[in-house]
Amino acid sequence: MSYPIVVYGHSALRKKAREVEVPAENTTRLVDNLFETMYQAEGMGLAAPQIGKSLRVFVVDGSPLGEDEPSMKDFKKAFINPRITKIEGDEVLMSEGCLSIPRLREEVARKSKINIEYQDLEGNSIKEEYTGYTARVIQHEYDHLEGVLFTDKVSPIRKRLIRGKLNNLSRGKFKTEYRTKLPNGKIW
Ligand code: ZN
Fold this sequence. Notes:
Layout: E1 5-6, H1 25-40, E2 45-47, E3 57-61, E4 76-98, E5 101-119, E6 125-131, H2 133-145, H3 156-170, E7 180-181
Parallel strand pairs: 1-7
Antiparallel strand pairs: 2-3, 3-4, 4-5, 5-6
Zinc ion binds next to helix 2.
């Protein structure tokens, strides 16, 4: 089942999400729904708070970019109850977007290497290390579980410049190809 994606200004995007049980039918269903919603919106990452569920789960699928970016080819998985245990490396500036912040892209500085621990759907604990583009995608999605958005991380000047656009988004002044849910609960 696919969900509308909650848009900038919605309270679900600002909560610290809570852990889920695994293995559990609800969690398996949530992961399926996240993938389905992400594919419908043509995104490559989606976190549970973006469908209004304040739970520590996000999914990624970078395979559509696999041709240009080999590290993304097999980068398809669900991160359940993730914990970033180490962030290191150089700060890299790169343009980011977000399904919850339609039609806005900004340069965001992030470190190039992370270590992450998470669970799979069977409840196994997994520890992995990521660098480069995959590390960036994970940090972006992980931020959603902490109530943080990429627009929080842009320079103070850019923040001032995009304030009007963000206000418009939260009031439904935008168009997307996918279904969205405004801060007032209206499906758009
Ligand atoms: Zn996002």
